[in-house]
Amino acid sequence: MLGQMQSQPLLISNLIVHAERHHGSTEIVSRRVEGDIHRSNWATVARRSRQVANALDALGLAFGDRVATLAWNGYRHLELYFGVSGTGRVLHTLNPRLHPEQLVWIANHAEDKALCFDMSFLPLVKAVWSKCSTVKHWIALCEADALPADHGIPGLVSYEAWIAGQKDSYVWPEFDENSASSMCYTSGTTGNPKAALYSHRSTLLHAYGAALPDALGCSARDAILPVVPMFHVNAWGLPYSGAAVGCKLVFPGPALDGKSVYELIEAEKVTMAAGVPTVWQMLLGHLQQNGLKFSTLKRTVIGGSACPPAMIKAFNDQYGVEVLHAWGMTEMSPLGTVCHLKNAQLDLSPAEQMAVRLKQGRAVFGVDMKIVDEAGQELPWDGKTYGDLLVRGPWIIASYFKGEGGDPLRYDEQGRGWFPTGDVAVIDADGFMQITDRSKDVIKSGGEWISSIDVENIAMAHPAVAMAACIGMKHPKWDERPIVVVVKKPGAEVTRAELLQFYEGKTAKWQIPDDVVFVEAIPLGATGKMQKMTLRQQLKDYVLPGL
Ligand code: ADP
After folding, report:
1. How confident is the model at residue 48 (pLDDT cuts 50, 70, 90)?
2. Catalytic annotation on 331?
3. Fold of 442-538
4. Of the candidates 163, 378, 417, 494, which lies 20 to 30 Å from 223 by C-alpha distance?
5. Contact 64, 180 (CB under 8 A)
6. What is each CA distance from 287 to 271, 293, 294, in whole angstroms?
């Protein structure tokens, strides 16, 4: 017997219709590439996204065609989020931090038909347009009079001119909720990049899940600042959850330095911000150097790579801001876990609570997870036993775009597919998951595993250390031994011996790195993560002390 409820497909257009009808006057504030602050609201975003929809129809793009963006976080990008997906075309957010050759490869692989870009990327587009063989329409996200006459890109139009002539009424089509809505390529540290192809259904379920109180906890009373880029896993889904709850959204544009982010938080009364640890490092540095405090910020979601304990402590103890440590992946839309304490843990001492907050947290409903050994046998949730982390759920990929890489899933005895995350983790009896490492970064020493994250976290707690990367070096007896590569804070001093001494008593003796290598900079990838492969390459002639 079937249920007798309305079966309305879960579509991205539902989000913008809801946001306009129920939260039309709630503001959308953007720092623009031009440098000024722009004010819009959900009603205006909805109206202009309908103009985008009409403009796309006028171009003759087919259902499912990819429309690419090369843009920072801002209101025009938001309009494209709804305008493109709402019509059944697929929004393809390109990461402008990638190498131009890689961008060309991705645009061709995705077979993008149109590409919308911020004016700050005009030099980049000028360099690559002729190699993007499928792109027929180039749209610059600016006013008509901001286009230079000598841009040289055939058929280039300004976004404002492109939508200006279009009607602002549009009937969003209804179609299968499993239709593709947007796509994002993983940074592809090995081999060619592969794309996660999200659906309307997966995006809406993720929007509900992410907004839950024990997930990102979004509400109409919030002003949310996604520092995480809209070109990286849809800014962790915040534009969608934001529309669902009708909160104010504040976009930082290209200005991600501590001063600019701080000014925006204060001026726009931001209550929640989300981003990767490197961004918060810059923000904390700015606060500390200038003796500043936050007046409205209540919580920050930090994920993308492990959040150093020193950062959680600084936010909590010095600024009264709760850090929500979160974990996810491009392949997971991206949310997997968020660290919120359970009721029973509220009575723990501050130190005990901090130990919980360092973990990546509990699964958001919609995500199931387990840890397994090499044979695929499930391992206990005892907070000690570590294994490969596998996940499943309706916003986790089943396969990559165009079937690249074959079937990525591993099947259990019931034939259910689990996605292997490539992370190694422990899970405790309360369901709190903690990543010990990426499987390719874990250091195998004398048959035991050393978590590179643990080694990095201790170094990061030293006041002179700005950034630390732990990598394994070949050792004839132990197989591998850890070393820690360190960038010092400007003007700060620490010696190799002092830093090694700093590890004493903080970890088991055999987990203390064998050496400290000071460098000017650690290579970062396009999503702000440390590139350990490149670092290993740079240190290929390095020899461990005593060998
Ligand atoms: P890419 O590296 O391709 O950009 P993602 O952005 O999808 O991929 O990153 C996913 C990976 O980032 C996870 O598998 C995990 O290794 C790491 N990661 C994400 N959040 C955290 C976190 N809070 N702590 C530790 N690692 C994290």
Report:
1. very high
2. yes
3. GMP Synthetase; Chain A, domain 3 (3.30.300)
4. 163
5. yes
6. 17, 7, 9
Would you call 456 a catalytic residue per the annotation?
no
Please report the atom of ligand 1 found closest to the CA of residue 529.
Answer: 2
Rounded Cα gap, residues 492 and 474, in angstroms: 31
495 is catalytic: no
Residue 278 CB contacts under 8 Å (≥ 6 apart), including other chains:
524, 528
Q: Which two tokens stand for residue 501?
A: 């001494």
* DSSP conformational letter for 100: H
Q: Is 99 left (phi over 0), alpha (psi -120 to 50) or beta?
A: beta
User: What is the domain partition of the chain in residue ranges?
Assistant: 31-175, 442-538
The domain made up of 31-175 is a member of CATH 3.40.50.980: yes
206 closest CA partner among 10, 27, 340: 10
Confidence of residue 547 (pLDDT cuts 50, 70, 90): confident
Mean pLDDT calculated for residue range 305-329: 94
Q: Tokens for 374?
A: 């090499």
Structure tokens at 236: 């962790």
Q: What is the 328 CA–ligand 1 centroid distance (Å)?
A: 6
Whether 444 is a known active-site residue: answer yes
Q: Taking CB atoms and a 6 Å cutoff, what residues make up the pocket around ligand 1?
A: 186-187, 303-307, 325-327, 329-330, 334, 360, 421-423, 435, 438, 527, 529
